[in-house]
UniProtKB/TrEMBL annotation:
PANTHER family: SENSOR HISTIDINE KINASE CPXA. SUPFAM superfamilies: ATPase domain of HSP90 chaperone/DNA topoisomerase II/histidine kinase (SSF55874), HAMP domain-like (SSF158472), Homodimeric domain of signal transducing histidine kinase (SSF47384). It catalyses: ATP + protein L-histidine = ADP + protein N-phospho-L-histidine. It is a multi-pass membrane protein. GO terms for cellular component: plasma membrane. Residues 194-246 form the HAMP domain. The chain crosses the membrane at residues 9-31, 170-192. Its main location: membrane. This is histidine kinase. PROSITE patterns: HAMP, HIS_KIN. Residues 254-466 form the Histidine kinase domain.
Length: 466
């Protein structure tokens, strides 16, 4: 059994033992009261039956039959009975001496109480401890006799033989049940602990494998509880890590290629000039400048990404109108729009204020709009639309380009990831622009969502309301 399984097993066992102890304590404190209620209810039912028998055999001229019934009942049921006539005079008292003493002992009265009461003859119910109970006997609609007896009290029952017998049997039943339940819970706890920890052990082993670089991990999970959700989340993480590792390797290769290509070209030109095979004319110098510019752009993009990550910690916030920023970005790309004859449509509110870093916000919209132009078709369309509520402000940027495949959508914000390598190559893409946007949106506590629509793509930039 695993360490966690042992802990769960011990916890289950402790909880069961504590529960049994609490039940035992509750029963111990309540058993006396329950016993009293049971005995008194039984007494009352028996005396009601006696009252019916006396009523059936009542005769004013012959009390001996009634006396015989009361004496037999009192001896059989061990209940002292007093009989009161209709005039309020007691005409029958419980048997005296040893018989009365035995009855009082069975009621739980101590020796001193018994001796004190036995010193007097023909004692009334009020002379004895406990609550008085009475039952009227009705004959022909008139009360002819009243039976009196004493209710059993918890204080007097604590030392009685009947109570001790009852309590010992209850305790034996509790101990037997506790032993049986404990054995059962030990087995169930062992099985349950193993069932809970088994998938956790699989997750642990898979996590160790991921830590060692083996990202192709998949754990089979059953059910729909939190543990199954944890397994699903781990499997999703493992798949994404595997994909990101693949992206990282491909990106490293792509970055090396992007840097190597212009360097190789410049090196080739310089060697040719040095060997006298080529003249350092204006055309050659221009081509070397273009290759240098390619490297400069790539390095600048990398620098932009590093700066975007730092913005999370040193963002300069001020009240900014996004309307102004968007129009400024469009103005800078005016020539690019005209070159591809792209029609731009703005549906913006006049006041789109948020709290943010002006330069960072400019970079966000510049990268998105630049991509919307770069990857759009000739004679295409771009639409920028705003919407707002009390909690958020959304800017949607739609284009009529070729769109992004569904398999690429989850990864387009990863550094160096390029959904369409041939398209990016022809457009000098670096795979860094959207990663910069994602970092800057996170710095503004915002969110970016990308969706494919019929005839293009839409990027939704969601900012907290100012």
């Amino acid at each position: 059994m695993s360490k966690l399984g042992k802990k769960l097993f011990i916890i289950f066992l402790i909880l069961v033992i504590l529960s049994l102890l609490l039940v035992g304590i509750f029963i111990n404190f309540s058993i006396g009261e329950r016993f009293d209620n049971f005995i008194n209810l039984q007494r009352e039912e028996n005396i009601s039956e006696l009252a019916e028998m006396i009523g059936e055999n009542f005769n004013n001229n012959n009390f001996s039959r009634i006396r015989s019934l009361v004496e037999n009942f009192s001896r059989t049921n061990r209940i002292p009975i007093w009989v009161e006539d209709s005039k309020g005079e007691f005409i029958y008292f419980p048997a005296q001496n040893n018989q009365m003493s035995n009855m009082m002992r069975r009621m739980g009265m101590n020796n001193e109480s018994r001796m004190n009461h036995m010193n007097m003859m023909r004692q009334l119910p009020d002379d004895f401890p406990g609550q008085n109970k009475e039952k009227d006997i009705i004959v022909d609609g008139e009360k002819v006799l009243t039976l009196h007896w004493k209710e059993v009290s918890g204080e007097n029952q604590l030392n009685s033989e009947l109570y001790s017998y009852f309590k010992n049997n209850i305790y034996r039943a509790i101990i037997f049940s506790a032993f049986f339940v404990t054995i059962l819970i030990i087995g169930l706890s062992f099985i349950l602990s193993k069932k809970i920890t088994s998938p956790l052990i699989k997750v642990k082993n898979a996590a160790l494998a991921v830590a060692q670089g083996n990202y192709q991990q998949n754990i089979e999970g059953k059910g729909d509880d939190e543990l199954a959700e944890l397994i699903d989340a781990f499997n999703l993480m493992s798949r994404k890590l595997h994909k990101l590792e693949k992206i990282r390797k491909e990106s490293t290769s792509d970055l090396a290629h992007e840097l190597r290509t212009p360097l190789t070209t410049i090196k080739g030109y310089l060697e040719a000039i040095e060997d006298g095979k080529m003249e350092a004319d204006q055309e050659t110098i221009k081509e070397m400048q273009e290759e240098s510019q390619r490297m400069t752009i790539l390095i600048e993009k990398l620098n932009e990404f590093a700066n975007a990550q730092n913005k999370i910690f040193n963002l300069t916030e001020e009240k900014v109108n996004l309307n102004t920023i968007i129009k400024k970005v469009i103005k800078q790309h005016h020539n690019f729009l005209n070159k591809k004859n792209i029609k731009l449509k703005l549906k913006l509110d006049a006041n789109l204020y948020i709290k943010g870093d002006k330069d960072s916000l400019f970079q966000i919209f510049n990268n998105i709009i630049e991509n919307a132009i770069k990857y759009n078709v000739v004679n295409g369309k771009i639409e920028v639309e705003s919407s707002a509520d009390q909690e958020k402000l959304t800017i949607a940027i739609r284009d009529s380009g070729v769109g992004i495949s569904d398999k690429d959508l989850p990864y387009i914000f990863e550094r160096f990831y390029r959904a369409d390598k041939s398209r990016n190559s022809s457009n000098q893409g670096t795979g860094i622009g959207l990663a910069v946007v994602k970092e800057l949106m996170d710095a503004h506590q915002g969110k970016i969502v990308v969706e494919n629509e019929a005839g293009g793509t839409v990027f939704k930039l969601i900012f907290p309301a100012a």
